[in-house]
């Protein structure tokens, strides 16, 4: 059930309708490419090869084409004297950080590297003129997978010996060795997590306008974090003064991680606007976005679990080669290292874990965070390993899990890989999921169907997610070059209407609804009186943006903290006017009342007017009613849950039918249960996509052969089941609202649940692991090599 946005009763926790939807559904919402309709167009020439030396670039023919305004190369950019270096935002010990220039000058390292930019009056002319740019290359061998690339010659970057960017270790290797030596069993799995192509509805785009009179540069772009883009354009790529640079993310059509990063293309667009002193815009085609934008995952892993006869897990050992692509984007190093290794404990008490990750440069598009970033990869390893181990021990997979769950009275729980989980009732969520799916009955049905030659599979996956990276100091100690805080401003107008400004940046999550719910609830005002502003560096003082499921716990924490500050100031003004002590003034439902004298009261909107008149406020108090908070939580929040997939596999064709999908999620207090449910639905779809359909494929020369939506298999609505969702509520003590993030949870849970289900179905064929995506061909080949159906 949804409620009207005008409802004045408590709105936190209600399924308020999304205020974003009317303009999105009627086509009135404005996206980046709607901006600057009269701008000139930028088209960017991409490398023809994955690895080559550039011998020469001749732009003269292109420059002569009718309608072409200018053609620029990397030499022009270099000569302009800008910093010209896309940075990484997380330093690891020994990390190699080769310069990532906006356009290649000497060498191209993957087939998306930019070589030249054409600016033309018209988008089609700009693209046609790219064919006129004559580049002469000396081709080099390309390496595309993280294991093949180790030691491949010639290296992607001269600076990175053997193509290794970092060699990261976490955990106590000696303790793990001892535990393995003492354990009754060791289970092993080798697995690959292929590259995913994040596919938001809107490919990346930028529009830029420069005023030479004031030196003001305005960039509209598809961004998940406009303030970080402004800061990086100022300090690392363009060198444009930060106070004369405005970055605006208008409506953003999905991101899934891809729009966090500062890529060359948006900076090239802004550079062209400055250089030509005219408005320009760039819009990636889908294929261009696939070949240049960040990819996800790309792990090759060996993992082992040491378990005793009774199912007690003693230790875990993981070694992963993580493909980084040709260049380091901002979180490329954090995602496969800390975000991955620290989550391997999942919901379990595993006394010793050791993880080694070798981060490897390859001649491919950069790899970075994609929905679930690092946590999805880590939980996948653990949840596959638990299934493999359970089978080896002859245990039901749910029993092995149950034996090792962290119990409710163990929180805060410190894992052997350094996280301190805030709160959890893991067994409750797992039991709920098993009850909904009727697990025992399903196992009986599975046995009966096998007699008939039908193959039902039941896959269970538990997960924990670390959501809302924080606190800033701890992140800084581990190498982060950005904070974990968020800004929330709550500003009353004199009339009592409110503007909330937050440094998060929506791409579809519904922040304008949920942040308004938080403020309306704290201030006791109708939600219709609250406007939310995001995604504009001029209107929001600072911000870290939206990723890592941080907007509810961290952005929401900032907004509620500011709202509470506003209430405290308003209480003092009300007390002054009601001639009472502030301690004797209660606040409820937007009204200040003197305790024991209910008729002496004042509404918060009236207090706002008094605050701005400033005639009758306490001495020493400044007029006005607003507050700004830089909220820096003490820790991550840790949402969790259990997902169960029930599939039937047809061994002669490899068809997988998902018959049921049950998800029980716990994201603490829910601000808006309808939005939470939407997040779970979208997350499951992406998790299923990874399990059954999606994999970016490069050929041996480094061409992206899945470079369009004709070739890259995304799940369609008809491929997805009805979802049966439920939730438990375990509040987080780590923020004022008790909320935990939810944006990535379901992607993390869905992939192992579906893979576990398919592998479970194929048990009679002796299949104990299959690598994703589980296409018909993969399944059919596994069944055939086991002797057929
Ligand atoms: N929410 C809530 N109660 C909670 C937790 C969250 O009502 N206890 C609401 C929030 O207020 C917000 C939404 O659920 O409206 C998601 O909140 P949160 O978990 O904080 O995640 P973020 O808003 O920070 O979004 C980031 C997350 C990530 S990392 C990816 S990737 C992702 C995702 O969200 N990309 C998305 N969901 C997406 N949804 C859409 N439509 N498009 C994307 O690109």
UniProtKB/TrEMBL annotation:
Q: Where is the Aldehyde oxidase/xanthine dehydrogenase a/b hammerhead domain?
A: 26-141
**What does the record give under GO molecular function?**
iron ion binding; oxidoreductase activity
Q: Which Gene3D superfamilies match?
A: Aldehyde oxidase/xanthine dehydrogenase, a/b hammerhead (3.90.1170.50), Aldehyde oxidase/xanthine dehydrogenase, molybdopterin binding domain (3.30.365.10)
Q: Name one Pfam family in it.
A: MoCoBD_1
What are the start and end residues of every segment in region (Disordered)? Answer: 1-29
The yes or no answer to whether the keyword Oxidoreductase is present is yes
What InterPro entries does the database record attribute to this sequence?
A: Ald_Oxase/Xan_DH_a/b, Ald_Oxase/Xan_DH_a/b_sf, Ald_Oxase/xanthine_DH-like, AldOxase/xan_DH_MoCoBD1, AldOxase/xan_DH_MoCoBD2, AldOxase/xan_DH_Mopterin-bd_sf
Q: Would you say which domain of life the source belongs to?
A: Archaea
Question: Keywords for this entry?
Answer: Molybdenum, Oxidoreductase
Q: This chain belongs to which protein, by name?
A: Carbon-monoxide dehydrogenase large subunit
To which species is this protein native? Halogranum amylolyticum
Q: What is the lineage of its organism?
A: Archaea, Methanobacteriati, Methanobacteriota, Stenosarchaea group, Halobacteria
